[in-house]
């Protein structure tokens, strides 16, 4: 069994805590908050046995094997490194880091401590993603020429950490990693060239981002991330012999339908997914920690992701504010 602790009381915990309890080899035993009263109230609400004040206090607990880190983006590197130093395995929400050099620091520390560190892209563990990649690798649409993908949802008017530059805010860092990582997964490597443009919020972060990636061999990817439109996710892959449309790539439901077009014919392919998302992510993490299986999202991939996102953001800054 993996004995888990959670650093913080973030909203996403509402999906992860049930997943930990459904996973076969996980036991959630502790939650930490900077405020003791908040930690204790949260522990009562979610029936977590222990509540502690301060993240380091949880890391110092010898009864904890692994931690889940859902903190604001700028806290990911600091507390991942602190967890590694304490000998804990780490599942950290995306983005793992805002600089590829920080991923290198994490990788070096994790190798030295012999612990698993993985960036949390839940969709990577789902049967829908496995099916998409199987079709592409089997040549169902021929050679991939273009990928078009995006993730958008509308933020309300209340203050939100996603719009705070001091906390690593912005739509590219928040949801832009999804289309970027999927495009790089499909193509198999990072792009050779990027272009980016953004609509900038008054706080200074991007609240809408549009980017283009050009890969070696001529394949391209158009990506979109934003907080200014209603919730929607999409993925379309164009190949030399056909096309594949994935209506719900990043938060797949229990049953999804892929549209495969080739030779003028449309084939609809049903894919059975997870009754409860995040469970497969936790179970794959269990396999890495307990069985020695390689992480689904490697630190090498996380470094590529950070590098591409940094390059896109820099490109958008160069194009100016719009």
Structure description:
By secondary structure, the protein is an alpha/beta fold. It folds into two domains: 2-122, NAD(P)-binding Rossmann-like Domain (Rossmann fold); 123-282 and 286-292 and 302-319, Dihydrodipicolinate Reductase, domain 2 (2-Layer Sandwich), CATH 3.30.360.10. The chain contains nine helices and 14 strands. The protein has helices at residues 13-22, 36-46, 55-59, 76-85, 100-113, 127-137, 171-187, 279-291, 299-319; strands at 2-7, 26-33, 50-53, 66-69, 89-93, 117-120, 144-152, 193-200, 206-214, 220-226, 232-239, 242-246, 255-262, 265-272. The strands form two sheets. The chain has an eight-stranded mixed sheet with strand order 8-9-10-7-11-12-13-14. A six-stranded parallel sheet has the order 3-2-1-4-5-6, with helices on both faces. A hairpin with an 8-residue loop joins β12 (242-246) and β13. The radius of gyration is 20 Å and the shape is globular. The model has no long low-confidence stretch (mean pLDDT 96).
